[in-house]
Amino acid sequence: MLTHLDDKGHAHMVDVTDKNNSSRVAVAESVVSFNADTYRLLLDDALPKGDVFATARIAGIQAAKKCSDLIPLCHPLMLTSVKIAFAFNDENHQVTIEAMCKVSGQTGVEMEALTAASVAALTLYDMCKAVDKGIVIGPTRLLEKSGGKSGHWVADQSESGE
Predict the structure, then answer these.
(1) pTM for this entry
(2) Is 17 a member of any domain?
(3) How far apart are CA 1 and CA 65, in angstroms?
(4) What is the domain-level CATH number for residue 54?
């Protein structure tokens, strides 16, 4: 059985030596809510720190690549793809960040996708905080994962943050 606890109850990194390599994909999202004025500045590319979305995209990709340095007991992975996309909800002044991570390996990429979406959201906050400190981040959640022993899983869409 895979567990982060050893036979003495101590935390350890799971041994995936005997697991088969397979194509694994995970998609996560993080929703960021702004006040109306900040949201408009964001869409108009009129914030003082420059290209907010390019910076958030790079931050998300870098975070996915460094996930094992950030999350204890997370396996270091050679990611084959990381994509960050943004969707806009004008009515609620929200940006939804979607992070997709892909690997061919012995363990999944859920943590990498969640980390990428979270860090991209934090970067949006950082890039906008000079004009709005009331930005709200969340929910952040896994949307889908495929590959590995547990197969394909998709989140219940009724739990969406929008």
Answers:
(1) 0.87
(2) no
(3) 27
(4) 3.30.70.640
